[in-house]
Amino acid sequence: MQNEPLVSIVIILSDFFHLASLTLKSIVNQTDKSYEVIVLETAETKKDLIMIKPYLEKIKIVKHFEEADLPLLMNKGLEIAKGKYIHFLFSGDVYVSKFFISYLKDLITKNNFPDLICCSFLKREENLSPEAQSFSLESFRKGEIPMNISSCWLLISTVNQLNGFDAKYRIQSGFDLICKIFLKKNRKIFFSNRVLTDYQVKKKPSSVDLYITWENLKIIYK
User: Fold this and answer.
1) pLDDT at position 1, please?
2) Which of 44, 78, 147, 215 is the most buried (most CB within 10 A)?
3) What's domain 7-220's superfamily in CATH?
4) Can you give the pTM of this predicted structure?
5) How far apart are CA 80 and CA 221, in angstroms?
6) CA distance 25 to 54
């Protein structure tokens, strides 16, 4: 339908709630309004959500969940979304330009609605300068993961054909889906060397990094 948004932006708020306003500000500042905003949150108190209050009129829906089960939240976002594409952001993620949606619209039209759009992203580590990382098949074959879900835009019809996000991957269900798109017959994937999103560095326990590595290996070698 003509009034359907180009992209459904799903913001998952399960921690660092105070950074949510940065994410929303970068969205509402877009010059092109071909988007809808969906917020899925696991806040324990209303105080946690105070930073989204100024943006409520710009949000299609705010839905509360008791548990921060990532694949469940992503599948719920997929269920609610009405756009052609879906893009997942987390608290503190931002669009680096107010012309992002305009660029995305032009890119999608010129490339005949690809199943997946992968952009470069900034790799940030403590005490080091940010480094732009582009997708590399060579890195991929070595088991390195040269992408994150916030730098990827997914065609919703393709995601639905692949049955959404697999609940058995607690953290890397997005990466699993991206791998399925790579294996899909006649898939169309577009790679851009432009960095379109940035994020706040969030400290994670080493056990989380180990779990991510374990899930990545399960996905790659299954």
Assistant:
1) 47
2) 147
3) Spore Coat Polysaccharide Biosynthesis Protein SpsA; Chain A (3.90.550.10)
4) 0.91
5) 32
6) 10
